[in-house]
Design a protein that fits this description.
Radius of gyration: 25 Å
Number of domains: 2
Pathway: Amino-acid biosynthesis; L-arginine biosynthesis; L-arginine from L-ornithine and carbamoyl phosphate: step 2/3
Family: Belongs to the argininosuccinate synthase family. Type 1 subfamily.
Main location: cytoplasm
Strand content: 15-25%
Shape: elongated
CATH architecture of the largest domain: Alpha-Beta Complex
CATH class of the largest domain: Alpha Beta
CATH topology of the largest domain: Argininosuccinate synthetase, chain A, domain 2
Number of helices: 12
Helix content: 25-40%
Pfam families: Arginosuc_syn_C (PF20979), Arginosuc_synth (PF00764)
Number of strands: 14
Distance between the termini: 61 Å
Order of helices and strands: EHEHEHHEHEHEEEEEHEEHHHEEHH
Strand order of the largest sheet: 3-2-1-4-5
Largest sheet: 5 strands, parallel
Subcellular location: Cytoplasm
Length: about 400
């Protein structure tokens, strides 16, 4: 679709400098009506200024929506049922937020009769992929505008000059080179770029948004309990809480105990390596708690199969394929595994560590009569192990005989 053919576009709008420049640029370059959508995903910022900025630009249709409960219930919790970690470490805090924003953008586009959507992701990052794969999965014929891939504002200097020419307010810390870029939601915060670009140099303490340092954490452990029903946390210290409230409380507990910091060099979907500083205090606690309740409620082979699929599931989310058939298929398997994952986990939080000190469930597969070192009263016949071992050793014995005759392994 040519620029002149776009009549109305829904912009994912944060109210910051970049998306404010994009808003004005869309109005001038495309000559179209712009609808703004600002999502509250728990980033911890006041969103009304975004509404006022949009009004300043003459935007008539402005959407500012609190999606925190939807975010945690329908996106974060399903992902945590899988214990998803990208490249073994990253809890996917940015990745899991993009499909919800994109989904709501498409819904708004259909509601207001827009023929296009736009985002503020750059041409070097993963987010452009995540947004656009979601857009096309939900509305195949939608027109997508990605200003960073179109305009000639190729530097911070040019961006600031455009802002000044168009009377766009510029925060004082944006007039020079920003020290680093921050993205945040209820699950995590991430910091990238500028003074963090050298992976050999450790991050300064000013980088951290969500946690105190483990060294500054209390010298006494904080003890908590988390209750699960069918794989999802439902109560903290015996108090039933909504999904977003529970995660927020865990964030507070993680923050004061220095939990959830990660300095990661990851492989972006677009091909480059990037260094990021991530903080996921509540999510880090939740991961340990969920794995702990699974340890007594999941069958061995079910657990091992689920664990073997986790890296693929995490990669699917990282790459922006939340609405793909393969993610839905894996989600069905994961959700099926969680029917028995109910019970209570006791944890100690101490100087950056999350330590499980107890777990109990009405569905526990742990049988003290079987595992005891005392008299098990016939619950387990130790003599059965002899045949089990000999059958499993058969191929090893045959291979060893061939090896003695000079055969190759």
């Amino acid at each position: 679709m040519a620029a002149k053919d776009v009549k109305k576009v829904v912009l994912a709008y944060s109210g910051g400098l970049d998306t404010s420049v994009i808003l004005r640029w869309l109005q001038t370059a495309y000559g179209c009506e712009v609808v703004t959508f600002t999502a509250d995903l728990g980033q911890g910022e006041e969103l009304e200024p975004a509404r006022k900025k949009a009004e300043m630009f003459g935007v008539k249709e402005i959407f500012v929506e609190d999606l925190r409960e939807t975010f945690v219930k329908d996106f974060v919790f399903p992902m945590f049922r899988a214990n998803a970690l990208y490249e073994g470490q990253y809890l996917l805090g940015t990745s899991i937020a993009r499909p919800l924003i994109a989904q709501r953008q498409i819904e708004i586009a259909e509601q207001v009769g827009a023929d296009a959507v736009a985002h503020g992701a750059t041409g070097k990052g993963n987010d452009q992929v995540r947004f656009e794969l979601a857009y096309y999965a939900l509305k195949p014929d939608i027109t997508v505008i990605a200003p960073w891939r179109e305009w000639d504002l190729t530097s911070r200097t040019k961006l600031l000059a455009f802002a000044e020419e168009n009377q766009i307010p510029i925060a004082k810390d944006k007039r020079g080179e920003a020290p680093f870029s921050v993205d945040a939601n209820l699950l995590h915060s991430s910091s990238e770029g500028k003074l963090l670009e050298d992976p050999a140099v450790g991050p300064d303490e000013i980088v951290f948004q969500r946690t105190i340092s483990p060294e500054a954490a209390p010298d006494k452990a904080t003890e908590i309990t988390i209750d699960f029903v069918s794989g999802d946390p439902v109560a903290l210290n015996g108090q039933a809480l909504s999904p977003a409230t529970l995660l927020a409380r865990l964030n507070d507990l993680g923050r004061m105990n220095g939990i959830g910091r990660l300095d990661l060099v990851e492989n972006r979907f677009v091909g480059m390596k990037s260094r990021g500083i991530y903080e996921t205090p509540g999510g880090t606690i939740l991961l340990t708690a969920h794995r702990s309740i699974e340890s007594i409620t999941l069958d061995r082979e079910a657990m091992h199969l689920k664990d073997s699929l986790m890296p693929r599931y995490a990669e699917i989310i990282y790459n922006g394929l939340w609405f793909s058939p393969e993610r839905r298929m894996l989600q069905a398997l994961i959700d099926q595994s969680q029917h028995s994952v109910s019970g209570r986990v006791r944890l100690k939080l101490y100087k950056g560590n999350v330590i499980c000190v107890g777990r109990e469930s009405p569905n526990s597969l742990y049988d003290t009569r079987v595992v005891t070192f005392e008299d098990d009263e016939g619950a387990y016949n130790q003599a059965d192990a002899q045949g089990f071992i000999r059958l499993n050793a058969l191929r090893l014995r045959l291979g060893a005989k061939i090896g003695r005759r000079g055969g190759a392994l």
